[in-house]
Each structure stands twice: as structure tokens, then as C-alpha cells.
Amino acid sequence: MPRKLSDTRIRILRRLASRDLDRDGAECARDIAIGCGEAHRASDWATGALREMSFAWPKPLVRRLGVTFANARTWTITDAGREALAKTDAPSP
Asked: Distance between CA 86 and CA 81 in Å, rounded?
């Protein structure tokens, strides 16, 4: 059974889901943290959660997309991540 998403993971998934890769491009962990309002912790805040979600069972919620010019990993949300986010955002009966 999959674990319940923490507040940090929900915020990260919402940030990634709101991005249009063709228009905005992919973000690294530092950019994701700043976009979620965690500038004081920068990349440390998002790195652990992104790594855990990339190895989530049974399906990864995010995946590595590439690297920036500064050699930072960029991330995108997967279909499984969108489904998990939709379940979180849906009102409970």
C-alpha cells in the first residue's frame, strides 16, 4: 500500500504539475524549493523528497529529466504523480 503524501511532497508535486515544460522548462531542486516558498533552505528542502518520490513503489511519482548547465538535476512529474496529486486534491466523502 502506498504511503500517504506528506505536505512537502504535495507542495513539490503541485509545483511540478503547474509547470509547462515546453514554455517554462524543467526545474532543479533549488528552483522547486524557491517556487514553494522555501528559499531559506534552497535545495536541501526538496532534494530528499524528490529522491524518495523518484524511487516510490509501485510507480515513481517524479523522474529526472536532465541536468542544467551548472550540473544540477532537473525534475518532472510522472503520470503516477499526477494521479496521486489528484487523489490528494479530491474532496473526501
From this structure: 9
Q: Which strand (E) or helix (H) includes residue 38?
A: none
Mean pLDDT over 5-17 rounds to 92
What kind of fold does domain 7-86 have according to CATH?
Arc Repressor Mutant, subunit A (1.10.10)
- Contact criterion met (CB below 8 Å) for 38 and 45: yes
Domain ranges, ordered by start, for the chain:
7-86
pTM given for the model: 0.85
- CA distances for 68 relative to 26, 30, 72, 81, angstroms: 9, 11, 5, 23
**Residue 88 CA neighbour count, 13 Å, CB half:** 19
Q: How far is Cα 85 from Cα 20, in angstroms, rounded to an integer?
A: 17
